[in-house]
Amino acid sequence: MATTTGVHTKARSSPYPGSTVNRTTVPDDKVDWSAEWKDYSPVEYTAPSVKAGPVWADVDITSENDSKKFKFNLIDGKVNRKSHCSKYTTPGGIPRNPNGRTGMNGRGLLGKWGPNHAADPIVTRWKRDKKGKQILDPTSGKPVLQFVSIMRKDSGVWAIPGGMVDAGERVSVTLKREFGEEALNSIDIPDKERKSTEKEIAALFKHGYEVYRGYVDDPRNTDNAWMETIAVNFHDEKGKSVGKFNLTAGDDAQDAHWADISSDLSLYASHEEFIHITAVHRKAHWDAKS
Ligand code: RP5
């Protein structure tokens, strides 16, 4: 199980999502905090939607005294402020991104100072022909795996239907909730069908394989706020439970489909990496060589 991605790139990209703000450019060799950069001057940005103080966001830190309101690196009431990676530092009372510089201070679009915890359900089935026979990729000779992919409303980019872990919520609950909301539009499922759908999901989600736990190279990350996730694979081997569901996008998703897994995928944040680990684990096709 992996715990960190390599040098982040999406977390240094500009403009910052949902804005016209450009980050200070951070070259590859200056990402690591240990690389000396005396004049490093990141752009300051916290989105107006976060500044407005919604329930899911922390209050602003404007002095070292303000930071005493937070229990960084600990479970703080119902909020998990621990990192999956390691203990993070808090110079001047403000958390510092453990994966290095991003060219931006503040929280951008993220609500929490420090780690913002998410969960990513990777729901898979084998690609089959009309007769139900597994389809092999002609280049690798390996069976093609498919996963439930959604198109995010915020960026129009394909992704795993993941989401934020609510305060006090168990990750196992987030995984099921996000899958239902984004890939099955469970919020609008008629009551008649709801019970049986929930039953099938509950049965499949009992046996997950943890693919990844750690930092996510998310374009919303800043020097002081970043995404972390637990990605879990739920595999429908026979394609007879969730594998036969018709997908309907809902909530933060504008489209949903079963996507063929291969190295051609271009996905949100670090999601390609999570899908690659899943393909290797399931001995499925990835590219002509593996
Ligand atoms: C990514 O953002 C995570 O891997 C997860 O898929 C997602 C959670 O954020 P929202 O979808 O709730 O915006 O970093």
- Fraction of residues in helices? 10-25%
Overall CATH architecture of the domain at 117-281: Alpha-Beta Complex
Any idea what the shape is? globular
Query: Major sheet: size, sense and barrel closure?
Result: 7 strands, mixed
Order of helices and strands: EHEEEEEEEHHEEEH
| Termini Cα gap | 19 Å
Weakly predicted, low-confidence segments: none
Computed over alpha carbons, the radius of gyration is: 20 Å
Strand content: 15-25%
How many helical stretches?
Answer: 4
Structure description:
The chain has four helices and eleven strands, in the order βαβββββββααβββα. It has 290 residues and is of the alpha+beta class. The protein has a domain of 165 residues: Nucleoside Triphosphate Pyrophosphohydrolase, CATH 3.90.79. The strands form three sheets. Strands 5, 6, 7, 8, 9, 10 and 11 form a seven-stranded mixed sheet that branches. The longest helix is centred in the C-terminal third of the chain and has 14 residues. The mean pLDDT is 92. The structure holds 5-O-phosphono-beta-D-ribofuranose (RP5). 5-O-phosphono-beta-D-ribofuranose binds next to β5, β8 and β10.
List the helices and strands and how they pair.
Blueprint: E1 43-46, H1 48-51, E2 75-76, E3 79-80, E4 104-108, E5 114-126, E6 145-152, E7 158-159, E8 163-164, H2 171-183, H3 191-204, E9 209-215, E10 225-236, E11 253-260, H4 271-281
The structure holds 5-O-phosphono-beta-D-ribofuranose.
Would you kindly provide a brief summary of this structure?
By secondary structure, the protein is an alpha+beta fold. Helix content is 14%, strand content 22%.
